[in-house]
Each structure stands twice: as structure tokens, then as C-alpha cells.
Amino acid sequence: MSLDEDLDEARAVSGAGPGLRRARAWLSRAVEPGTIDFWRYVEDAGPVDAVRRLRSGQAPASIRSLVGARAGEDATLADLARAERCGARLLVPEDDEWPALPLQALALAVCDEPIERREQSDRTKALVPPLALWVRGPARLDELVDRSVAIVGSRASTAYGEHVAAELGHQLGERGWTVVSGGAYGIDAAAHRGALAAEAPTLAVLACGVDRPYPAAHGALFHRIAETGLLVSEWPPGCAPLRHRFLVRNRLIAALTRGTVVVEAAARSGAQATARRAQDLGRQVLVVPGPVTSAMSVGCHELLRDEELRAVLVSSAAHIIQAVGRIGDDLAPPLVGPSSPRDGLSDVALRVLDACPVRTGVSPDRLAAVAGCDVLDVLRVLPALELADLVEWTGTGWRLRPPAGKGGRGAAA
């Protein structure tokens, strides 16, 4: 059946039928994602009528100019067949699986854009909802992003950054959180691998078709992600990873997650751009600090210094979950240092302990004089200090007990 016949049938049928799905597939190839005026036109006319008007030349000239020569093309059946061959599918807003709640932030943000095109945000930065998503993998997108965190960072990462990203990915995966990233070299790949090591699903948002691994060296990584998680893209199968598409997809990484963690970022980086998109969408920005001597941490420290951004410093998955999780349920445990036998001692006991000499034992009277307390107080606390292995009786007086192995009674026989 031709596209036009499917469109005619879709006008009489409600729901995500074949005609509507083909219309969305056609729209995903007709105009580059992030185009404000085009998204508004599709929202007003509906996907089916929008495609009919564009193909028949009835759409406004300003919208037809965005489509250009693609108006007469139809690769929908080939795109859908190619997706099926690689185990992918087209997800549309009319599907139950569509992550409507996370993406609602994009719909609200685009409402603030001016009507005049020259006054609108640049397409690579505009917060525009996707018209459709091509997904590859067995998981449901809405369930996968319900408890998700983005981990982004530099491609030219350091060993420190990759270690931290992998640890965070692993810890989050163990706690039932989905790690979302872009599948690139460096921090992205380390975060994905950390989650996979925890046998947890992870999600990669791509700037090309879901059947086209980029970088090519990550073919095995993308295959593993698609086995339990999802590969997601706004571009149909076969589309190339053009440079501007990486900037466009950053808004999806920010929108689909509860917060964005920046592990390493240079002074100018895509990771910083993703963090800014997250702030614009009302998402929490979290930053892992790095060495002040590292050029790969300059961007992280600048994010932390930005008072308007209100970025949160994090160093563990517990910190991240506390920042983006449920209030009162996902609190990070307080950091507790190593315990000491001196913990819990009264003020008098501490003063007597400090008054005890290291070598020669002294009398309780001498201890009372040095500690500044009564002799009876000294006699009252000495037995407790002895039971705690802090002091010992030498036969002639009291002294600090030598540490184990230093020749005292605690030394090994």
C-alpha cells in the first residue's frame, strides 16, 4: 500500500495504526529534529494531515521550505523494514510506551520560544520534543527512564574519569537505576560498561541510526546494550552521525533522566552543553570534581562555580540518588569515620588519659594534678580506661598502654 493510501486510511482510524506510524516515520526523515516551527506545525495539524499537506504542496511556504526536496520522497517502508531486520521499532507519542512525562518538560520549554524564527533559539540548542523515536532493544522506554540518571563527560577522558564513571554506572545499576549516556568514547562508554558489569540495563541516545554503530569500535558495546537495554535515536536507520546531530541529541539525554552527572568536561564540551540543557528543563545538575591541575576537569569546576546552575557536588551513587530520588526514601547514609577507643569517653576520662605518661607510671595524685581534677575522679575513671586497653598499671603507677606489637601486654607472644 502506498503512503498516501495509508494516510487516507489513518484519517478514519484512531490510535497508532499503520498509517499514523508511517506518517511519523516520514516526518522523522523529512526535517532535522529540533526545528521549532516544524514541530509546532505537526502539533497543530496532526502528523497525518501534516504529511498530506506537505506532500501535496498545501502546507505553508515557510514549512515547505524546511522540508525542501524531501517532500516528494518516501522511504518509510524501507526504514521500517530496516529497523525490523536489526530488531528495532518505531516508537510514537500515540504509543503506551512513549515516555510522556519526562518529555513534557520539552513541550513546556518550547512554548516559551518566540513566534519569529529569527528570534528563536538555535536548532542545536532548542528544547523541542521528538516527533518519534527509533528504539532498539527489548526494554520498554517508559519503564527504563522512570528511574534514570545521565552520566556524561569528555571523550578524551583520563584514567581517573573513566574509573569514576564506571564505578558510578556500576553502583547505580546495582541500586536499580538506569544509566543514560551517548555511547561515545571516554566517559560515556565507561558509564555504560559499569552498568552492564552490574547486569543492569543501560540506555544510549545516538546521533545516527540505531543500526549504525558510531564509533565503529563500539559495535560490541552497542550490541550488549541492545540485549538488555535500549539504543534510542530520532534519526531513521541508516542515518549518518553528522556533527550537528550530536548537539541536537543532548537535549534528549537531559530530558529523559532525572538528573545529569558530569564526570569530566573540558572548558568547552558537549557535556557542559548537556548540563545546561538539563538546567533549562528543571533537572538536577550533578558534578564530580577532579584535580585542579587537570584540563579535563576545568568544565566541571566551572559548573560548580556557577551560582545560577546550582550544581551539586557528588562523589558516589548514594549522593546522586539522594539528589534525584524520592524525598525521604533515597537519602545517602552519613559518612562515618573509623571508630576509636577514645570515642564516648567523658571529659574527665579524656583529661586523665591525656595526663598519663608514655613510659614511667605515675600515681593517681600526679594524674589529678596534671588533669586538673579530683583524685577521686581519677580513681573512678582509671578502671574503665584499663578495661578499654588505654592505660595499664606498671606496679609503681599508671601509664598509657603501648600499642600492640610495641612490647606491651597487647604484643603478640
Automatic annotation (TrEMBL):
Family stated for the protein in its record: Belongs to the DprA/Smf family.
Protein name, UniProt field: DNA processing protein
Superkingdom to which the source organism belongs: Bacteria
GO biological process, one term: DNA-mediated transformation
All residue ranges annotated as the Smf/DprA SLOG domain in the record: 128-323
Gene3D superfamilies the UniProt entry points to: 3.40.50.450
UniProt xrefs under Pfam families: DNA_processg_A (PF02481)
